[in-house]
Amino acid sequence: MISNIRRWGLLIVLASLALSACGAAPAQSWPGLTASGDTAYVAFNTHIYAVNTANGVKRWQFPADNNNDISQFFSDPVLTGETLIVTSYNKSVYALDINNGSQKWVFSESTDRLIAPAAVLGESVYIASADNNLYALDLDGQLKWTFETQNGLWAAPLPTEEVVYVPSMDHNLYAVDAVSGKRLWSVELNGALAGTPVLDGERLYVGTLSDTLYALNASTGRELWTVKASGWVWAKPVVDGEALYFADLKGTVYSVKADDGEINWQAQVEDSVRGTPVLVEGKLVVSTDKQGTIYGLNTADGSVAWEKVLDDQNADRLLANLVVLEDKVLVAPLTAKYLMYALNPSDGSVLWFFDPKAK
Q1: How far, in Å, CA of 155 to CA of 75, rounded?
Q2: Closest CA to 173 of 143, 194, 146
Q3: CA gap 1, 246 in Å, rounded
Q4: How far is residue 244's CA from residue 198's CA, in Å, rounded to a whole number?
Q5: 329 vs 314, which has greater pLDDT?
Q6: What is the average pLDDT across 248-253?
Q7: Average pLDDT over residues 13-38
């Protein structure tokens, strides 16, 4: 019963996002994370924080004060050189200086909310919008081209030098020319696409909100194989050599053969998996939507190496993607005593936490 209630809670979050076209905004966003070197960047509600990864101490925040009208952030910040790019629920994209959090530029031509993270490759920044459009910008935030789909875009695109793969809620995966923005091909799948594809050689992997993981030919979109899951596949798959790992919103975690989709093993965790798992030290680390529980699963057979509840009294709703940085796994719960935790991947113990209210 509890598991069902929590899955309905996640569906309510989805519904609140769908209301964006009507001008409605959810009461709270979920956090987004990225990290590089000695700094982690976490976006949550109306602020973005830069955090020292050695001790969890805040370096800066954007905006610098606590009174602002930027609205909310739902997505992972994206690093490119000395710039941090973050999409916002107020239809704008912000580019910040990673050294001090000052604003470099803002792009505000989207006509609906920005739920997905940006995607950056080379000199291009790609912005997926709930207004059905993919916007291609240069590194100064100037518009290069726009590609329109038939429904909203909730997931970041996957760019390569020649092709940008665009997952859409209209059930289609589009291949778009990276230079011109013209459609090369598209393939209709069996459900809405809320997660970013993964490219492995000539294969694309993408999940749908109709309980299916697809492997497609990256050049043509031709279906190679599918795996039927027990629930929606929202989180991005993870590839490691010959193995592919993914999870669904009913808490089933899968290891399959990347060549043909044959299942190596499947494991059941306590609740929905929305955030992308990470591989570290021979373990697949998976976060769930129940009581802030995180699992370290052995990649050989899916057995539980460790299990950790971040905060017995408060932690809940682990919707954000996990991030690995050297010897740490970074976690940002939706509701918990602290905004971010750094875990030891060997046993799940907490190394430090980040409190944005700390002086």
Answers
A1: 9
A2: 194
A3: 24
A4: 10
A5: 329
A6: 96
A7: 62
Sign of CA dihedral 96, 99, 102, 105: negative
Mean pLDDT of 203-226: 98
pLDDT over 80 at 243, yes or no:
yes
Classify strands 124-128 and 203-208 as parallel, antiparallel or unpaired.
unpaired
Q: Answer with the residue of higher pLDDT: 317 or 49.
A: 49
- Burial bucket for residue 200 (CB in 10 Å: 0-12, 13-18, 19+): middle
pLDDT at 145 > cutoff 90: yes
**Is residue 243 within 8 Å of residue 202, measured between CB atoms?**
no
Residue 312 half-sphere exposure toward CB, CA atoms < 13 A: 0
Q: What is the mean pLDDT of residues 203-220?
A: 98
Please state, rounded to an integer, the average pLDDT across all residues of the chain. Answer: 90
Tell me the C-alpha distance between 101 and 268, whole Å: 41
- Quick one: DSSP state of residue 3? H
pLDDT at 289: 83
341 contacts 350 by C-beta, under 8 angstroms: yes
Q: What is the dihedral of CA 207, 213, 219, 222, to 10 degrees?
A: -120
**Residue 266 corresponds to which tokens in the numbers above?**
């499947």
Give which of 126, 252, 259, 135 is closest to 196, Cα–Cα.
126
Per DSSP, the residues of 94-136 read EEEETTT--EEEEE---SS---SPPEEETTEEEEE-TTSEEEE
Contact between 294 and 286 (Cβ < 8 Å): yes
Is-contact 270 257, C-beta < 8 A?
A: no
